[in-house]
């Protein structure tokens, strides 16, 4: 696909974003924003310091090359954290009438740097889409990675309503859910829900390096879920964690204390109070999971139905088709396939009221139910 390729003919509702959007940084987030905006008919000009990365993103259809006459209404800075402040400053100076936002995962450090330099920030609004994939680059970009995801917008007292509407309109146009936070609150929040989980996943996966092959052959979906994000790029995470070090350390210190308490209980499992300490740890985890937003951002509790699926073509499609016939909506899906087995397990999340209908209906159609939440 070339940069002159037509915008998809099926572009949906009219975009809130008007004019040209300039995206600086043609990696995963920048290119994904480009794909999502172009699908709505928005003119997207891509730029990147790497000519090969830029060419690749354009070839995949994320935007076009910049032109001298470009007069963007909105600029999205999607570059690594260590150069975010530099690029924001440059774009504000080059296009003084444009609103500039960035999608860096740390908000306070770039803001402090820009203020220390005396940069006029009247047209700058920091933001951060809570979306991504384990693999980066333009080749991994997708238009739908923002759908249903939060997009934090960090306004201040100088932000005009019109400028704020531009950034929030961008978030809505790509399918995200904009919400306002201060940079300080944002950085504390992502330390807990993003940055520390990355470290925990990496530390746990690091234990596999010297583990016997026999041990790893027992790995199931639980450990794969827990360590999925450990495949992330070290270079990027060194920058992210360094820029948000203090909030991350606060969470790590509290987590280390919790781990020490559990380890102490397990060193003497028969001692008074040890079993309770372990049970309280698991129960507190239950309570924490209950607070996580569910589908469509609601705190909902779903039930799981685990179905055995033969490892042959078309079986998943048949399963979904029959669930549709039963008027059972699949709220979430997790697949597990053990090496060497001729079947997989499809763990389907449904609302509690649909469990019996799903189980009875599937069994009557010949499906084998491995378990349900209440088993």
Automatic annotation (TrEMBL):
Catalytic activity: prephenate + NAD(+) = 3-(4-hydroxyphenyl)pyruvate + CO2 + NADH
CDD domains named in the record: ACT (cd02116)
Keywords: Amino-acid biosynthesis, Aromatic amino acid biosynthesis, NAD, Oxidoreductase, Tyrosine biosynthesis
UniProt keyword Magnesium present: no
EC number per UniProt: 1.3.1.12
Pathway assigned to this chain's UniProt record: Amino-acid biosynthesis; L-tyrosine biosynthesis; (4-hydroxyphenyl)pyruvate from prephenate (NAD(+) route): step 1/1
UniProt key word Metal-binding: no
Residues annotated as domain Prephenate/arogenate dehydrogenase: 19-300
InterPro entries cross-referenced by the UniProt entry: 6-PGluconate_DH-like_C_sf, ACT_dom, NAD(P)-bd_dom_sf, PDH_C, PDH_N, Preph/Arog_dehydrog, Prephen_DH
Residues covered by the ACT domain: 304-375
Alphabetical list of PANTHER family matching this protein: PREPHENATE DEHYDROGENASE, PREPHENATE DEHYDROGENASE [NADP(+)]
Family per similarity comment: Belongs to the prephenate/arogenate dehydrogenase family.
Protein known as: Prephenate dehydrogenase
Organism encoding this protein: Microbacterium lacus
């Amino acid at each position: 696909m070339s940069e002159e390729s037509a915008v998809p003919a099926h572009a949906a509702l009219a975009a809130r974003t008007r004019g040209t959007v300039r995206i600086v940084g043609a990696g995963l987030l920048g290119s994904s924003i480009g794909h999502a905006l172009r699908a709505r008919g928005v003119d997207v000009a891509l730029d990147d310091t790497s000519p090969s990365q830029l060419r690749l993103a354009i070839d995949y259809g994320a935007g076009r090359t910049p032109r001298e006459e470009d007069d963007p209404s909105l600029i999205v800075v999607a570059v690594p954290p260590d150069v975010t402040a530099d690029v924001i400053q440059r774009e504000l100076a080059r296009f003084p009438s444009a609103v500039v936002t960035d999608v860096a995962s740390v908000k306070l450090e770039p803001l402090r740097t820009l203020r220390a330099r005396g940069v006029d920030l009247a047209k700058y609004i920091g933001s951060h889409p809570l979306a991504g994939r384990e693999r980066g680059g333009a080749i991994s970009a997708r238009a739908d990675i923002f759908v249903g995801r939060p997009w934090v917008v960090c306004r201040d007292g100088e932000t005009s309503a019109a400028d704020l509407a531009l950034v929030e309109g961008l978030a809505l146009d790509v399918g995200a859910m904009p919400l306002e936070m201060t940079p300080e609150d944002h950085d504390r929040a992502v330390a807990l829900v993003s940055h520390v989980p990355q470290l925990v996943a990496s530390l746990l996966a690091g234990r596999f390096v010297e583990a016997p092959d026999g041990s790893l052959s027992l790995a199931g979906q639980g450990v794969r879920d827990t360590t999925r994000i450990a495949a992330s790029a070290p270079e990027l995470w060194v920058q992210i964690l360094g820029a948000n070090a203090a909030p991350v350390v606060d969470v790590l210190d509290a987590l280390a204390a919790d781990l020490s308490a559990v380890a102490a209980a397990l060193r003497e499992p028969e001692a008074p109070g040890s079993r309770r300490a372990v049970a309280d740890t698991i129960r507190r985890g239950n309570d924490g999971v209950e607070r996580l937003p569910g589908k469509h951002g609601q705190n909902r509790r779903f039930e799981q139905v685990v179905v055995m699926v033969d490892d042959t073509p078309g079986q998943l499609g048949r399963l979904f088709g029959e669930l549709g016939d039963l008027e059972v909506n699949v709220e979430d899906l997790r697949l597990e396939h053990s090496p060497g087995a001729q079947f997989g397990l499809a763990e389907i999340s449904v609302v509690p009221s649909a469990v019996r209908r799903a189980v009875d209906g599937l069994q009557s159609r010949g499906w084998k139910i491995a378990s349900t939440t209440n088993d």
